[in-house]
Input
Amino acid sequence: MRVRVQTSRPQRPRWSGLVYLCCRVCGATTEAPAVRKSEGERVFRRPPPGHGYSCAGFHTFLPTQAGLHAPLQYYGSRWCSGTLLILEETEAGIALVKSCEWSDGLFDVAWSEANENVVAAGGGDGSLQLWDASSNHNAPLRVAREHTQEVYSVHWSQTRGENLLVSGSWDQTAKVWDPTLSQSLSTLKGHEGVIYSTVWSPHIPGCFASASGDGTLRVWDVKSAACRLAIPAHASEVLSCDWCKYDQNVVATGAVDCSVCVWDLRNVRQPVCPPLVGHGYAVRRVKFSPFSRSVLASCSYDFTVRFWDYNRTPPLLETVEHHSEFVCGLDFSLHTPNQVLDCSWDETVKIYTPACLTAGTHTAGP
Output
């Protein structure tokens, strides 16, 4: 059953959307460690031929009316072979609803904040596409081809009154778009390496952060099409960044040096706390909790997901080891407190609540 709520805005469902990237594991073989199943864990594994997943992220449409049934959840995913998957979580598990083919690999996707059925995807051919998840057609609604190399990151704006996309590419540029994708509104240059991550501020209109292979975290102002701040965040490639949901000045970065750093944009001489260390290989993704000011999670090529509270000593809350390959996708649900999604090259997507967040000590905001 799919629940819809009619409001003055476009219809918004009582479910959360999950989107994640799936990349082919091209015959990779790794000695698999023992894995432990998390409490209440749900697992999706696509039937053979298998592919590994590389990115994950919930996208939530906020409930607009109380008293409805428990929310259903939608998922979107992308395969290195160029397949966009729509999955649905039901009482029985996670089921495949729809798949769409693309001519090249898809590296990132994001649900629209204004239309519950529209998904943006970034391709290995440098394209940016918009897809209709509810349509019976398997072709994209629109396609833009301005980037000259892989589009590795796409993200929809998070503040009210804006409906913009930002794309980050291996061509070292970020581009800002409106939903027509007719022509980019601006092209932002400054990075001297691949752009791996572009994330809109949830607080400041027209502001986004980017993480790059040049080792920097940059903060951009769309109105002036200029870089407002460049932080030498790590002495290695920076693969991910995310904004704190409670403080407009706090951003986290994850890098090839195996560390996570938390930055206060008002004073960038050093991180706000010692680097969060413990991962054995590169940190692929970092995400702040939407339910706690100082809690964040990181996933890594060391097969683990780690949960941190950077205001505590020691900051490490828990290490989750339930995958047998690289963990590349990670997100918190905005609708279900402390629910986490991750995905891996071991061909599984897992939804669970980590034990460290179930005790009630990390469920409140500031």
User: Anything to note?
Assistant: The chain has a mean pLDDT of 81.
